[in-house]
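Below is a filled-in request sheet from our internal design queue. Each sheet records the structural input a requester submitted and the sequence that came back. We keep these sheets so that new team members can see what a complete request looks like end to end.

REQUESTER: design group, bay 2
PRIORITY: normal
MODE: inverse folding
CHAIN LENGTH: 129
BACKBONE (tokenized):
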């Protein structure tokens, strides 16, 4: 899984997504949050969580668990993120799918028997409200 922590950027897929975000913030957020309602692969789920965290950060609701260096990489693009239509609703919907029964990422974390990940995703969803 390439994961070292349950927070939004505690895995390789999220860090890869962050590089895409810096190059094209609107495109990266929009595509990461558009995961549909079918099977959610682990890499897509990790990208969706990272995008949702970028949205929360853009609205001034970042997690204290996210490294300040990562927040510093997101903040220059906050205005562009806030201008994406319905971005907070899209992020919340994507998180629901990532936590759902058709999510490979949720399955992997459930197998690891670590409730910290689900709690971190639930906290992120709350910060987007």
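RETURNED SEQUENCE:
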């Amino acid at each position: 899984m390439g994961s070292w922590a349950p927070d939004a950027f505690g895995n390789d897929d999220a860090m890869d997504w962050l590089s895409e975000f810096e190059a094209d913030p609107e495109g990266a957020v929009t595509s990461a949050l558009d995961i549909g309602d079918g099977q959610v692969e682990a890499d897509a789920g990790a990208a969706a969580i990272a995008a949702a965290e970028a949205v929360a950060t853009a609205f001034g609701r970042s997690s204290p668990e996210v490294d300040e260096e990562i927040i510093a990489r997101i903040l220059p693009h906050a205005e562009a993120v806030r201008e994406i239509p319905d971005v907070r609703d899209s992020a919340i919907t994507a998180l629901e799918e990532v936590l759902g029964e058709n999510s490979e990422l949720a399955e992997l974390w459930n197998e690891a028997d670590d409730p910290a990940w689900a709690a971190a995703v639930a906290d992120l969803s709350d910060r987007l409200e």
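SHEET NOTES:
- The mean pLDDT is 92.
- The helical segments are 12-23, 25-33, 42-58, 68-74, 78-82, 87-99, 104-111, 115-128.
FILED BY: M.R.
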